[in-house]
Amino acid sequence: MTKTTDNKLLLVLPPLIQPNAPYPSLTHLSAFLRNKGVDSTAYDLSIDLLDTLFTRKNISIVFDSISHKSLPKHLKIPFSNRDFYINNIEPVKYFLQNRCPEMATRFASKDFYENINRFPDDEELEWLYGTAGTTDRAKYLCALFIKNMCELISVVDYNFQLIKYAERISTYLETFDPILNELNKPNTFITSIMLDLLENKIDEQQPSHIGFSVPFPGNLLTAIQCAKHIRNKHPEIKIIMGGGYVNTELRQISDTTLFDYIDFLTFDDGEIALLNILTGKPLLRTAILEDGKIVFHNSTDTSSSSIYEIDGIPDLTQGIDYHKYFNFTDSTNQMHRLWSDGCWHKLMLAHGCYWHKCAFCDTSLDYICRYVPNDVTKVVDIMESLINSTGIRGFHFIDEAAPPVLLHRLAEEIIRRHLTLSYWTNIRFDRNFTPELCYLLARSGCIAVSGGLEVASPRILKLINKGVTIESATECMRNLRNNNILVHAYLMYGFPTQTIPELYDSLTTVRKLFQEDLIQSAFWHRYAMTIHSPSGQHPESYNAKRLDKTSNPFANNEIPFTEAKQPDWTDFQKGLDLATFNFMRQAGFEIPIKKWFNKKS
């Protein structure tokens, strides 16, 4: 039995998640608790797993575990190049971790990847990168190398993907049974590595409590696998779980099986909830098991949970090894690559959304509806501290929608301090992004924004209460692009009462925005009705009807619904993606909109 230290928290990010930067919950929660006098250490188990997996030793084991006969046809070529992958996995990894930039010229050469399938030909590479762009070209080809390797790893463990684990199991998880089925199986090669790493960290830290941050379905199973391991081997350690997945999916949980593996389930902002657990104060926004039932506790403590309100500058780097993070250039689109290329420090200008009225959004949840602006001066203090301690000058503001007024203050403060840095953020396409503000943002280092245009047709925009018009959003985009700020648009289809002709109109508007270079990238997704949104709580107001009658015993978020004259949206995603893929490359503008779809209408 491990000797534990009283009231010491090991805060863990379970695999797997985007590997280019630390996830913010890990660093922010740990920093908050340390500033409150709690011994807290952050541990990114997700990046540690990838760093350990991509070694000669472990990739050799992967190849040894694969039978050539069982492989799908497209993987037989990489499998036949066993020695190439084993010999080069570490150099490629180090290059993507910026540890050996001198390898760029060699890795940029197509000849280096002799006999490797599904790589672009020379003509395509020259079109993508020209005859220069050596480092970008090398990072792109190395990313393809890693993707090939990940497909082989998935033969050994079908749950494995580079940025998520067992997502197919954890999405729409009505009952705990699929998780339980996985827990009852023997450990895979991947989970064995994960649990060995966790065990080493427990032995090093000797915590009294371990907290798992679960932001997405793609790291739920691994969190519970880790919790099971701790329960069996270290029963004295208390286990806490929270994060985005918990907040959105588990608010109505009634199945007690999860509490066989954890002690506390925390909701919404975790700072004060964790602090109260660790210091023995009344529980806040926390569920526990009492007399065989799940009981939710919420004390009257309404203390702020923002690290920006603490005296002094919080250390957001403790426990983080920045050398392990990967920079993947997996897209030639300048805007798209921001999500995977570059170790962006993640900060927030405000808690919640200053609009919080959209009909499709989870506006009833605390992280959306409770808007609290942070002190911009302290935000820039933290930015300076992070630059000085890491040398990294890139920042991603992860606000639901960064308020124009706070962005104005941020830009002025950065310029006043003569800081040279880059940042990007999420916004609403608000009319307050005037030419003057956009000029100021660009001067201060803003290089890109992403925002929800959602449904680019007037009737639906009004119905979803977006608070913008196509004309005002277009003007906002124009002001941004006139100052060389890249623009990404989130788009949606299938909202109740939307028609197929309205979808065509929406895609026509998007095509025009690409033609005029007002947006540089975009992403479409099918509308999902959720229990936390106005459309989910009052579907009749949108001429829709809920189909479910009772809550699921485990996860509850997306709601099945129907509507009168509901279009068949099957297969529209493929056409939208194909059209947008071409538009992003300034191609296909002459193709009639309906031709992108295999539909008669």
Q: Any overview of this molecule?
A:
The protein has about 600 residues and is of the alpha/beta class. The chain has 23 helices and 19 strands. The chain has a seven-stranded mixed β-sheet, with helices on both faces. It has a six-stranded parallel β-sheet with strand order 10-13-14-15-16-17. A two-stranded antiparallel ribbon has the order 3-4. Strand 16, helix 21 (about 500-515) and strand 17 form a beta-alpha-beta unit. The model has no long low-confidence stretch (mean pLDDT about 90).
Helix/sheet category:
alpha/beta
Outline the biggest β-sheet.
7 strands, mixed
Terminal Cα separation, in Å?
Answer: 67 Å
Strand arrangement within the widest β-sheet reads 2-1-5-6-7-8-9
Number of helices: 23
- How many strands? 19
What overall form do the CA principal axes indicate? Answer: globular
Give the percentage of residues in beta strands: 5-15%
